[in-house]
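Field log, afternoon session.

UNIT: design team B
ACTIVITY: writing a sequence onto a fixed backbone
BACKBONE:
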């Protein structure tokens, strides 16, 4: 089943110097169970596309179906609701809350979806076990390694069982060995049915995904390996 389906998606920013066509006619389909990487030079339009896919921004033109639902017709409230139920976000800088322990960090997104308070802890522990951190449930973030922090961030981004996981440079702060571990965890989550889009500038990381798309000057194309 397609989780992401875009047709001719475009985003032009207004700037004092005139319009900036940051994304031009992007057509893309990502299925459940698939992990796709986006590579491309700085300023090519990767974040622009991720912001549209994450419902953080609206396209200037084109269509975006998320989980079989046309997103153009959604009002601001519905967009927020769809975002907090259907999408998870992972960033380069982990963004854990320093004074809360690992389980409490992971439980945070559950405050925005309708869940019994009593279900929060078991769901959080399940998410942490999926990333191999069942032995660190009570740990404070500052006692974790970079790779462990990113695994907590992944648990937090998936605790509500989203259909789509958007990752912006998830391995940007990690060494090669730890990057591979984190990419392995993402691959396992994809195998479980999640659709994942990973922005990376690291070709070795892109190689670990099912398919790589290149963004250049706002245009999306399939990666042709050389
Ligand atoms: N809010 C904005 N207003 C005007 N121009 C913008 C805005 N956001 C991005 N741009 C421009 O749109 C183009 C694409 O930017 P985008 O942030 O999508 O690139 P990127 O591929 O994510 O780059 P990086 O790898 O550096 O993160 C760039 O030319 C950028 O300057
Ligand atoms: Mg960017």
């Amino acid at each position: 089943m397609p989780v992401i389906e875009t047709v001719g998606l475009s985003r032009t920013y207004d700037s004092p110097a005139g319009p900036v066509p940051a994304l031009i006619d992007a057509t893309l389909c990502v299925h459940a169970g698939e992990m796709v990487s986006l590579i491309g030079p700085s300023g090519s339009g990767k974040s622009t596309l991720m912001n549209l896919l994450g419902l953080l921004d609206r396209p200037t033109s084109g269509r975006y179906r998320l989980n079989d639902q046309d997103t153009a017709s959604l009002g601001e409230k519905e967009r927020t609701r769809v975002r907090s139920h259907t999408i998870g976000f992972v960033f380069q800088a982990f963004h854990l809350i320093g004074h809360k322990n690992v389980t409490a960090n992971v439980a945070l997104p559950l405050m925005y979806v309708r869940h019994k308070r009593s279900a929060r802890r078991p769901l959080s522990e399940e998410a942490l076990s999926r990333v191999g951190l069942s032995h660190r449930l009570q740990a404070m973030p500052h006692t974790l390694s970079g790779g462990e922090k990113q695994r907590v961030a992944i648990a937090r981004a998936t605790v509500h069982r989203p259909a789509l996981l958007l990752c912006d440079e998830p391995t940007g702060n990690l060494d090669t060995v730890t990057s591979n571990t984190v990419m392995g965890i993402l691959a396992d989550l994809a195998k479980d049915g999640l659709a994942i889009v990973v922005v990376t500038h690291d070709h070795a990381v892109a190689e670990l995904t099912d398919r790589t798309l290149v963004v250049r000057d706002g245009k999306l194309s399939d990666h042709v390996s050389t």
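LOG NOTE: Helices lie at 46-53, 76-86, 102-107, 117-130, 146-158, 176-191, 203-206.
NEXT ACTIVITY: expression trials, pending approval
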